[in-house]
Design a protein that fits this description.
The structure holds two protein chains of two kinds. Chain A is an all-alpha fold. Helices cover about 75% and strands about 5% of the residues of chain A. Chain A has a single domain, classed as ABC transporter involved in vitamin B12 uptake, BtuC, CATH 1.10.3470. Chain A has a two-stranded antiparallel sheet. In chain A, strand 1 and strand 2 form a beta hairpin. In chain A, helix 1 packs antiparallel against helix 8, helix 1 crosses helix 9 and helix 9 runs parallel beside helix 11. By secondary structure, chain B is mostly helical. Chain B has one domain. In chain B, helix 11 crosses helix 12. The two termini of chain B are about 20 Å apart. The chains are: A mainly alpha, B mainly alpha.
Chain lengths: ~290, ~300
């Protein structure tokens, strides 16, 4: 096999992987920490891409990268406060079902607002071209995408692990009554965490737009993959989501060289094996 | 006689006269078939408390079993086709049920989902057998002991007889001690195990029954349209089964029938009126999940209670 081909696929795998990691990091906040199996996570990713598209047309790419997570984050906060939060007592099944209904609504709303045709977007100004790496070249935009995603993941991790706010959130997950008693509004905090989680999915959607374009059902694939990543990485483990995301991206990308027909099913088989052999995932504690 | 024993004859009568009211036997037959799929799903969610996102696997097994028999073997009796489909669906469900029932909660749901992806992939790749995304074509609908079923009204009534037989059996299963054990597992699995029930065996058995019924549904569907599209094993089909089951209500087997009826009618009629009808379906679905856990079927009881 041509070594440059392998190199290209490894680089592509990393790019795909950081997108997966970003979306899965959001799902880790929501599913791993808040214990909400948000099946609409991919729908928020798609919504992020479409909001970014409109913002891009009117205000340019940098603002689109802000508008998508903000708008979708607000939508997530409203949905959590009004509905999802109230289903906590009914259990996982009803939360899965409700978010499944949300997928139908969001997907059809996208068709209604933006139309059913796929979107295609040019690489933003100033990010065209690429770095020459021997015989291959790596586009600047992909480098930018990896940098932004890495920055965001690091930022969320720092807030969670190194700030007082993060400590309160983690304490609230361990013992909500106690943190409530100390005087923090745990519910409100959780709703904000939910908003941040979907905002991460949304910005991933915005980042992928110049690379892959958009279509109304684009969230379904990513929803499945982000659950796969969270399961493989280990539920609730932030590091697991990041490593798992990059791993899945690499596997999927390299599979296109070896056995392209199976690139997608390979990761589901991997998830089934992890679930059956090591249900706590690679980084899970339980 | 309790109220429940009246409901079944009423259902029979409604099904018998339906073609006189709605002159669209294909759609009615499809509604009955979806009713079987939804009822099989509800056995798992409503009685056992297991949310299966992999029902299309068993549907696909049944549909392809029927399709392959009818395409490759001459003079297949229709009941043999249905029996083969039931066995294939049951076998698939035994495997999925055995593996998934070891896990807990969302993990088990994810496993059924992973199996659905795997089944879809296999059906897509094995073009020589399944026809891939072109579908398996050229099924000729067999007759039933000399009765010609090639007309859609005749086939509707055949479907209705199979439907009522299977549905009646399902009602009996749910009311039998077996059904009580499933509900005991749903309410508290650890307790059911402590009492002495081999809960995993009961779970797998419930899966097998659900898979057999779903397989029969898949075969009836394949014979209705004369071909097996790849969609029979698509994840969307699994999702649609979930939607039908929930809409009607998981508390009662009749809920599944109502849900399938509403879904079939809405997707046929509403799609002509407003292209964005899935939006309404989504809102209706979320509303049921939020405030009407018993599904649409529980509305009657609610109204009766108020009056």
């Amino acid at each position: 096999m041509e070594p440059s081909l392998v190199a290209i696929e490894i680089l592509n795998g990393v790019v795909l992987g950081v997108i997966y990691a970003l979306v899965a990091a959001g799902l880790t906040l929501i599913f791993g920490m808040l214990d909400i199996p948000n099946f609409a996570h991919g729908a928020f990713y798609a919504l992020g891409a479409y909001v970014a598209y409109t913002a891009m047309m009117h205000a340019g790419f940098p603002l689109a990268l802000l508008a998508a997570p903000l708008a979708v984050g607000v939508v997530g906060i409203v949905l959590d406060a009004l509905f999802i939060r109230k289903l906590a007592r009914a259990g996982h099944t009803y939360q899965i079902l409700f978010t499944l209904g949300l997928v139908m609504i969001v997907q059809e709303a996208i068709v209604l607002i933006w139309g059913p045709d796929p979107l295609s977007v040019d690489v933003p100004h100033g990010l065209g071209g690429g770095i020459a790496l021997g015989v291959i070249s790596f586009p600047y935009y992909r480098l930018f995408l990896v940098a932004i995603a890495a920055l965001l993941i690091a930022l969320v991790w720092l807030v969670l692990e190194r700030t007082k706010l993060g400590a309160i959130i983690r304490a609230g997950i361990e013992d909500p009554e106690m943190v409530d008693a100390i005087g923090y509004d745990v519910q409100r905090l959780f709703t904000i965490v939910f908003g941040i989680g979907v905002a991460l999915a949304a910005i991933a959607g915005a980042l992928i737009l110049p690379l892959r374009g958009g279509q109304p059902a684009m969230g379904n694939e990513l929803n499945a993959i982000s659950f796969v990543v969270v399961v493989i990485g280990g539920l609730g483990s932030f590091a697991g989501a990041v490593v798992g995301g990059i791993l899945v991206g690499l596997v999927q990308s390299l599979m296109t060289l070896v056995f392209p027909a199976a690139d997608e099913v390979a990761i589901f088989v991997a998830m089934a094996v992890v679930l059956l052999v090591r249900p706590q995932g690679l980084f899970g504690r339980r | 006689m309790n109220r429940r024993s009246f409901t079944f004859p009423i259902l029979m009568a409604l099904i018998a006269i339906a073609p006189l009211i709605v002159h669209y036997p294909e759609l009615l037959a499809q509604a009955l078939i979806f009713g079987l799929l939804a009822a099989a799903f509800n056995l798992l969610l409503g009685e056992l408390g297991f949310l299966s996102f992999g029902q299309a696997v068993f549907n696909g097994l049944g549909a392809y079993a029927a399709g392959l028999l009818l395409v490759h073997v001459a003079h297949m009796p229709i009941l043999v086709v249905l029996a083969a489909a039931a066995v294939c669906g049951a076998l698939g469900a035994a495997i999925v049920g055995f593996l998934a029932s070891g896990g807990a909660g969302v993990y088990a749901v994810m496993l059924t989902f992973a199996f659905n992806e795997l089944a879809y992939y296999l059906a897509f790749q094995m073009r020589d057998v399944t026809g891939g995304d072109n579908g398996l074509r050229g099924l000729v609908r067999p007759g039933f002991f000399g009765l010609d079923l090639s007309g859609n009204v005749a086939y509707y009534y055949f479907t209705a007889v199979i439907f009522l037989t299977v549905f009646y059996a399902l009602l009996r299963i749910v009311d039998a001690p077996f059904g009580h054990v499933l509900r005991a597992i749903r309410e508290n699995e650890a307790r059911a195990r402590t009492i002495g029930y081999d809960t995993r065996r009961f779970k797998v058995t419930a899966f097998v029954i659900s898979g057999a019924i779903t397989g029969i549904g898949g075969a009836l569907y394949a014979m209705l349209y004369g071909f097996v599209p790849l969609e029979v094993v698509d994840f969307t089909t699994s999702t649609n089964i979930v939607i039908m089951g929930i809409l009607g209500g998981i508390g009662s087997p009749y809920g599944a029938i109502l849900g399938a009826g509403i879904f079939t009618l809405l997707s046929d009629r509403l799609s002509h009126v407003w292209a964005h009808w899935p939006l309404l379906l989504g809102v209706l679905f979320c509303t049921v999940v939020m405030v009407l856990r018993g599904g649409v079927v529980s509305l009657g009881a609610r109204v009766a209670k108020r009056a």
